[in-house]
Design a protein that fits this description.
Length: 176
Amino acid sequence: MYRRPSRKSRKHEAEKPNLIPILDSVFIFIFFLLMSANFVKIFEIGSDVPIISDATPPKNKKDPLNLTLKIHPNSISLHTGANERRVFRVSKTAKGDYDFFALREKLLEIKEKNVDEDTIIMMPLANVTYEVLVKVMDTVRDLRADDRDIWKKSAEGGDIKVRTLFNNIIFGDLQS
C-alpha cells in the first residue's frame, strides 16, 4: 500500500509577526521622551478688562478714586478722579530707570487714605517694554514686608491689616 508523504498533506499557516517586543520598545521610547522633555513654566499676571456699559452706575456716598497710572517715555504719572487730575509725577533716574521707590511711597500714601480701594487703571502711553510693565505692576500690586503697616476696620469693628496695595489692575487705552 502506498502512503502519501505527510509533509505535503499538511497545510502551512503563515506565521503572524510577534508585535509585543515592538510595542514594548515604542512605550519605552515614549516614556524616555516624556522624561527628557523640558516643560515650560508659563506665568500669568491677571488683569481685568474695562467694563463698558450704558447703564448708570450706582450712587455711592464717596466719589470713586479712579486711580490711573500713565506710563510716559520719560516719566510715570498718577491721576485721580473722573477728570484725571494729576497728583504725582515721577521721572527717570540718572541710570535711565523709573524711580519705583518714589512711586511706591506715593502709592502707600494714597492707600492709607483710601484703604478700601484696590483698583488701579494702567495706561502705558509709550512703547513700554514687557520688563518695565512687570516692574510697574509689581510696584503697584502687593505690600512688602518692609512697608509700613496699613490697617482698616472690619465689619465687626475690629482692625484688619491690609495685605495688598492696588492688586486689581485694569489696562486702559493700549492703542496709543
